[in-house]
Amino acid sequence: DARVTQTPRHKVTEMGQEVTMRCQPILGHNTVFWYRQTMMQGLELLAYFRNRAPLDDSGMPKDRFSAEMPDATLATLKIQPSEPRDSAVYFCASGLRDLNTEAFFGQGTRLTVV
Amino acid sequence: AQSVTQLDSQVPVFEEAPVELRCNYSSSVSVYLFWYVQYPNQGLQLLLKYLSGSTLVKGINGFEAEFNKSQTSFHLRKPSVHISDTAEYFCAVTRTGGGNKLTFGTGTQLKVEL
After folding, report:
1. Long-range contact pairs involving A47-53 (C-beta distance under 8 Å, separation at least 24)
2. CB neighbourhood size of A20 (10 A)
3. Which terminal residue of chain B, N or C, has fewer Cβ atoms less than 10 Å from its own Cβ?
4. Distance CA A34, CA A66 (A)
5. C-alpha angle B92/A2/A107, rounded to 5°?
6. What is the gyration radius of the CA atoms in chain A, in angstroms?
7. CB contact, 8 Å: B105 with chain A?
8. How far is A114 from chain B (nearest CA, A)?
9. Rounded distance, CA B68 to CA B85, Å?
10. Min CA distance, B43 vs chain A (Å)?
């Protein structure tokens, strides 16, 4: 059963600490997305990779957020330093560009910054 | 750029009653359209999608949606809802050739009551 795997599922951290969220996309998928979901803003696209190269990270605060794909099986989203306003659920999704169809979502990482 | 409007933030409905969740989109180019469902503390799951062909598309769990290009709408319908349909529903759009990069609406909370 192919699925997008995100770790950790929950993270509570203190303000100022570094947070790293990980995502394992579905094997063979060549596009990876990071979304953030909050009550106020809904689902926001933070970053978008194709074939491991970043295509669009305009939705991401550059001063504290960074997203990478060290290899085809791992995507990371880091926040350093974290702030209370970063509290949200972060979703990773992957898809197959050539089919141009839907993105498949992981179960998310619920981040709480205190 | 594309945008999606879901006018109803909450829709209460009694079990076994029909329901329609509204979605309107805006785009200057041709698009693909999707409905996703999110159950509590879960990721987003695809309900159905419109890529081309018949404007009436059927999805999982008895849901269907109709693409109306002239009205730029993609409303989701179910003839008889169940308690288990209680969830948040998101309409999303991507331009054709957009490579799975989705723009989401703000979501509609469907609450099914006995």
Report:
1. A47/A77, A48/B101, A49/A75, A50/A97, A50/B99
2. 14
3. C
4. 11
5. 55
6. 13
7. yes
8. 20
9. 24
10. 4
Question: How would residue B96 be classed by pLDDT, with cut points 50, 70 and 90?
Answer: confident
Can you say whether residue B107 is alpha, beta or left, with left for phi > 0 and alpha for psi between -120 and 50 degrees?
Answer: left
pLDDT band, residue B73 (cuts 50/70/90): very high
Rounded distance between C-alpha atoms, residue B87 and residue B85, angstroms: 6
Chain-chain contact of A43 with B90 (C-beta, under 8 angstroms): yes
State the DSSP string of A49-112. EETTEEEE-TTS-TTTEEEEEEETTEEEEEESS--GGG-EEEEEEEE-GGGT---EE---EEEE
CA neighbor of A45 nearest in space, from A60, A27, A55, A30: A60
Contact B100 A105 (CB under 8 A): no
> Of the segments A19-28, B1-10, B93-102, which one has the largest average pLDDT value?
A19-28
The distance of Cα B36 from the centroid of its chain, to the nearest Å, equals 6
Q: Which of A42, A93, A100 sits opposite B99 (nearest CB)?
A: A100
Q: Is A31 within 8 Å of B99 when comparing Cβ atoms?
A: yes
Q: Do B49 and A102 touch (CB under 8 A)?
A: yes
Average pLDDT over residues A96-110: 81
Of B96, B100, B106, the CB nearest to A103: B100
